[in-house]
Amino acid sequence: MLIVELAFTGAPERLAARPAHRAHLNRLHQEGHLLAAGPWADESGALLVFTVDRPELDAILEADPYYRTPGVEVASVREWKPVVTP
Fold first, then answer.
1. Burial class (CB in 10 A: 0-12, 13-18, 19+), 27
2. Which of 15, 41, 59, 76 matches a 20 to 30 Å C-alpha distance to 68?
3. Measured between alpha carbons, how far is 35 from 82 in angstroms, rounded to an integer?
4. CB 9 within 8 A of CB 81
5. pLDDT per residue as tens digits for the range 17-73
């Protein structure tokens, strides 16, 4: 699994792009590529848990313009090896 951590700023473009991004995330979840996603409680960023390999994640990030929107920064991408999963 791969974890993507996002950092947010107050740029208004981020909020304008969010509905299309969330629709895209729902499709990825339905297709089994995304386990979970959501913002931090303080809206400073978000965490996304993907069930894909790195080349597929890179394609997902490239396909969604949200990740290049002002106010959104991909802060880190890390491999995660959970010992307990749903």
1. exposed
2. 41
3. 12
4. no
5. 999 999 999 999 999 999 999 999 999 999 999 999 999 999 999 999 999 999 999
Distance CA 37, CA 21 (A): 11
Helix (H) or strand (E) holding 35: strand 34-39
Owner of token pair 């993907």: 50
Q: Which one of 3.30.70.1060, 3.30.540.10, 3.10.290.10, 3.40.50.720 gives the CATH number of domain 2-79?
A: 3.30.70.1060
Distance CA 82, CA 60 (A): 22
